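Need tokens for this chain, all 423 residues.
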Amino acid sequence: MLPSYMAEKSEFNKQQHIKYWLRCLKTHLPTLYQTNDASRMTLAFFILSALDLLDALTTHTSFEERRAYAEWIYRCQHPNGGFRGFTGTDLRSSKNEHNEHWDPASLAATYFALAALMILDDDFQRVKVADCLSWLRHLQQDDGSFGEAKMIEDQVVGGKDVRFCYCAAGVRWILRQGRLLSCGGDENDIDVEHLFNYVVSLQTFEGGLGNSPFYEAHGTLRFLDELPIFSKNTCASNAPSTNANLPGFIEYVTHWLVNRQTSSVQRTGDMEVPDEEAPEWARSQTPNPSHVQGTVKASAIVSRSATLSLHMSIDKPSWAGFNGRCNKDSDTCYSFWAGGTLAILNKIHLMDFNANRRYLLEKTQHMIGGFGKMPGDPPDIMHSYLGLAALASMREPLLKSLDPALCLSVDARERFESRINST
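Here are the structure tokens for all 423 residues:
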């Protein structure tokens, strides 16, 4: 039986989505993806994780194929720690002191590589854990943020992009689990409190978070900021001392997020939704503190404050996706960026589930499978994956449950934890 918010059923065409992702996996991508050659690791993660969410990875690929995918990921591992975005920069025997800076490991590629290995049930025996954690520590900058890579004379490059903070927190969590922790040691740990304080400093007067201090709040960055806040290693002694400031911080973030749900596929203003306690299933899907390593439970710090001023709209819309900034159109990916953050905060019930689901399935789901960025757009890999992730975070019956913090299935995360903690 479908949940009540799916009473007005819009069809999720699972078989077409499986066909779409298998084409992405086993055939050549369209020529437009040529400019993404250096980001193959990112594309690989989206494809593998999408098939996993659809519960089709093991049924539509052989064990030998999945091992081959893992081998390709290991070919991208950098000898000094981290992973490359693709094999094209691996200079091998041609590498020397004059050109080695053209072969850097990428922080984003490293997170996606490790996450893909989790999905592929790899045992992580070949991951250079200590080297990777040491490399990660040296990517942290003076203000607590992270760069993307080390170049000439170990110069950290990548600008002030908070998405690298998310990737750093994700890499740290993965490599400090179970037996892997003994490979890295606390001497290679990042400065968690400095990172935490940097993320908190990004909040704007609107309540959302920008890419850097004093930048405009943005929906994509809003989700990516969450994991550094809630990913504190439970055995670390350097937990942030600023936790007392979180209640007001999260209330304003929540207010900003729910107001990103727009009441029309056109540009018409924001929709208000009621504030209430999360339903039982939503509470049960909140990431377990033992896995996200949170020092504070979201449900304990988010109060029913009147400052949110959230009320039921009189005219309920048929479609209501999410935008990423004020006065912008709805976009498939923000149904996850905003919805995923609300799930982490145990506030996903504040969105209009049925309106968001109808937007995704009736407006941006494509007839050949996948999702477009906006209504009428052809499907692309990023929006197709985040459309699935958004539906999974809302407990779409034909998809696996999603871990919104890691942006992959709960099943993949639990299998990983079981393997790492039992060996």
